TrEMBL record:
This is Molybdate transport system regulatory protein. It comes from Sphingobium boeckii. InterPro entries: Molybdate_resp_trans_reg (IPR051815), WH-like_DNA-bd_sf (IPR036388), WH_DNA-bd_sf (IPR036390).
Length: 124
């Protein structure tokens, strides 16, 4: 097994996670599908979980990230607001910067000193 490093960026608004990998994936899916429920299905999320995540995002930013239109004869749906698109783009840039920073000499030095598996526990 190769050495792996797991980093994830989470932005907090009070105690709520305003943006993280899952919420970014949900925003991208909403942009692609034009629907909150379809985005949730595409990501394997329940309808309730999807709407709760959108609610948190919409409450944590200066303006809502997701805009909805009621259903009916005109169809309804959802789309990212201007801020929603900006937040998603900026978050993706941040993720790339974190990945690039983690792929440097400091990681290589740590990986060289790390065992592939832990030693057996010492008995006392």
């Amino acid at each position: 097994m190769s050495t792996r490093l797991k980093l994830k960026a989470q932005l907090y608004c009070g105690d709520e996670i305003a943006m993280g990998p899952g919420k970014a994936a949900l925003l991208a899916a909403i942009a692609e599908t034009g629907s909150i429920s379809a985005a949730g299905r595409a990501l394997g999320m329940s309808y309730r979980r999807t709407w709760l995540l959108v609610d948190v995002m919409n409450r944590c930013w200066k303006t809502p990230l997701v805009e909805t239109a009621a259903g009916g004869s005109k169809g309804g749906g959802a789309r990212l607001s201007a801020l929603g698109g900006q937040v998603l783009d900026s978050y993706r840039v941040l993720e790339t910067a974190i990945e690039q920073a983690a792929a440097g000499a400091a990681f290589d030095a740590l990986a060289a000193a790390l065992l592939t598996q832990p030693r057996q526990a010492q008995k006392k």
